[in-house]
Amino acid sequence: MPAHHPQKTQGVHRRELLKAGLAAGVTLSAWPLPYPATLWGAEAGQPKRGGILRVRGFDPPNFDPHLSTAAYMQSTLSFVYSKLVRHKVGAEIPPGKFMVEPDLAERWEELDDTTYIFYLRQGVKWHNKPPVNGRELVAEDVKFTYDRFLAEKGNGNRYLLDSVDRIEVADRYTVKFLLKEPFVWFISVLAYPTSTWIIAPEVVQHFGDLKKPETAIGTGPFLLERYEPNIKTVFKRNPHYFREGQPYVDGVEWLIIPDESTGLAMYRTGQIDCGPGGSWSVRQQDLATLKKSHPHLMYQDFQSQSASAITMRTDMPPFNDVRVRRAISHAIDRRALIEAVWGRGIPSPSVSPGLEEWTLPIDQLGAGAKYYQYDPQEARRLLAEAGYSRGFKTTLTVNSGAGRDLLDDAQLLQRFLKDVGIEAELKLQEYGAYVATTVQGKFEGLVRSPIGIAWEPDRRLYRAYASDSTLNTGHVNDPVLTAMVKEQRRTKDLAARKQLIHDIQRYTAEQQYYVYLNSNTITGTWQPYVKNYAPNQSFDYGNRAAALWLDR
Question: Domain limits at 209?
Answer without folding.
Answer: 52-256+527-550
